[in-house]
Every structure is written in structure tokens, then in C-alpha cells.
What does this fold into?
Amino acid sequence: MWFDCLRGDRNNMQKPICSKCVHLYTTWDRNFPYGCRAMGIKSASSPSEVVRGASGQNCLAYTAKQGKVE
It folds into this structure.
């Protein structure tokens, strides 16, 4: 899971998938179409890639969307 980085298990670290996160939104800016409400960023690529590039860590604000309950 993405939170393996919190336990120090770097061998199993996987990046979070922004499309499955509640904080992702689509912006009106053609140059920066992806936004993250939790981090307050807009980017041309996945916000988790921006966070990883800037900090060297996976996004710690990732919160998975809840599935549909029928």
C-alpha cells in the first residue's frame, strides 16, 4: 500500500493514484489541469508526481474515495 513509507518499508512503496483520491479536482487552467485541494497545488501532471519530485516522499495527504454503497 502507499502508506508503507510510514512504516519504513521502502521496498514495497508504491505511489498513490490521484484519480482514486478525494482531494483531486479538475481545474479550468489548460496549462495546469490537475489540482489537489489538500496540498493546494495545480499541475500539468499528477499532483502526486509533483509532491514526490519536490519532497522525495509519496503524498501523505492521500485519502481514498469511498466506493458506492447500494
